[in-house]
Amino acid sequence: MLRGFTKKKVGSYTLGEQLKKLRAEGRINLHEVSRETKVPVKYLEMIEEGRHESLPPDVYVKGFLRNYAEFLGIDSKKLINLYSRERDIKNNISGNKKAAAPKARKKVPYFVVTPKVFTAAVIALIVLGGFFYLYKEIGRFAAVPRLILTQPASNEKSVDGSSVTVMGATDEDAKLTINEQPVIVNDKGEFKEDIILQEGLNTITIKSVNRFNKEAMQVLNIKSNFEKPEMTASMEKGSEGEVSGEQSEKKEGGVKVSVKIETLPTWLSVNSDGDLVYSGTMLPGAAHDFKGDKEVRITSGKANQTLIRVNGGAEKKLADDPGIVRDVVFGPND
C-alpha cells in the first residue's frame, strides 16, 4: 500500500467527518483514495456520509476501513471501533422506533390460508430461489468478465499524436488495469484513461479480473508517429552540458517541465497554473512537455520512475521515493 501521510490522531468527530477532514488536509479526492486502496468510490461515500445500512457486511467494511486508515496513516483500530459504535447506536435507535410504533389493526382476510398451503408456498419459493441463485453463481464462476473497448477503434494501428485515450466497459465489480496500472471503473462498469505514448511502437495491455479470479485481456499495438520536441528529445542524450535552446527557453518566461518515464508504466497528474492539464498513464520511454505561466504542479504514482528537466536544466528524478509523491511545484526560477 502506498503511503503519503504521517501518523495523525483521530479527533472527536464522527467517522465520516474525520475522514473528510483528513482528506481535505491532504488535498485528496475520493477517486485518488479508491485508486490507492482498491475500495470502490460508492462505498467510500457511504462510509463518509454515515450510510451504514447501505454498506456490505461488516467483514468487508472493516477491511475497507483498514485500507483507508493505512493510506491516511492513522490507527485503523480507532476507525473500526468508531464505526462499530456509530453503527450500534443507529441500530438501537432504529429498534426503539420500531418498538414504539403503534400496531396496525388486524384486518379479517377475504380468504383463509391453511398451514398446508402456506408451507407448500414457502418450500416452493425456497427451492426456486435456491435454483436461481445457483444458476446465477455458476454462470458467473464459469464466465470471464466482459471487456469491451470503444476507443481506440480495433482497426486503429497508428496515431499522429503523442497520446491515445482508452475507453470501454467491463463488469462493475471487476478490477481493471492498463499495463498493470489500476484504473477506476464507475458504477456502470465504464472506464476511461489517457495514455502518453513513446515514439514508435507501443504495447497497451488492458486486463479485467472478476471476483472469481477469471480474467479477460486485450492487447493493443499502436505506433506513435509524433516527433519528440527538442527539449524532450535532449533528455535522452544525458544531462552534461547545456542543451540546445536552453537559454532561449529561460528568456521566454514561464515554466516548462519535460517529463520522461523510465522502465515502468507510471500514473501522472499535472496541473498548470491551477488547471488540470493531464491525468493518466505514461508508458515506459514516453516523454511529454508541460508549460505554465506561473507554475507546473506534478503528482506521480512512481516518483523514482519519473525523470524531469525544468526550464532546460539538468535531468533528474522527481524524487527517490518508489511510491506516490504529490504536488511537486516548479516555477520560472527553478
Give a verbal description of the structure.
The protein has 334 residues and is an alpha+beta fold. Helices cover 32% and strands 28% of the residues. It folds into 3 domains: 15-98, lambda repressor-like DNA-binding domains (434 Repressor (Amino-terminal Domain), Orthogonal Bundle); 147-224, Immunoglobulin-like (Sandwich), CATH 2.60.40.10; 230-330, no CATH class. α4 (58-72) packs antiparallel against α5. Residues 7-11 and 238-251 have low confidence and may be disordered.
Principal-axes geometry comes out as flat
Number of E-state strands? 16
DSSP helix fraction: 25-40%
- Number of DSSP helices? 8
Report the sheet with the most strands, covering strand number, pairing sense and barrel closure.
7 strands, mixed
The low-confidence parts are 7-11, 238-251
Beta-strand portion reads: 25-35%
Question: What are the secondary-structure elements, in order, as H or E?
Answer: HHHHHHEEEEEEEEHHEEEEEEEE
Mean pLDDT, nearest integer? 80
Q: State Rg.
A: 27 Å
| Quaternary form | single chain
Indicate the structural class.
alpha+beta
Strand order of the largest sheet: 1-3-6-11-10-13-16
Distance between the termini: 32 Å
Total of domains: 3
Overview features:
334 residues, Immunoglobulin-like, 7-stranded mixed beta sheet, 8 helices, 32% helix
Give a short overview.
With 334 residues, the chain is α+β, with helices and mostly antiparallel strands.
What is the fold's blueprint, element by element?
Elements (H helix, E strand, L loop, with lengths): L14 H12 L3 H8 L3 H9 L8 H15 L3 H25 L14 H28 L4 E5 L6 E2 L3 E8 L4 E4 L2 E3 L6 E7 L3 E10 L5 E10 L5 H4 L12 H6 L3 E7 L4 E7 L2 E8 L4 E6 L3 E5 L5 E5 L5 E2 L7 E6 L4
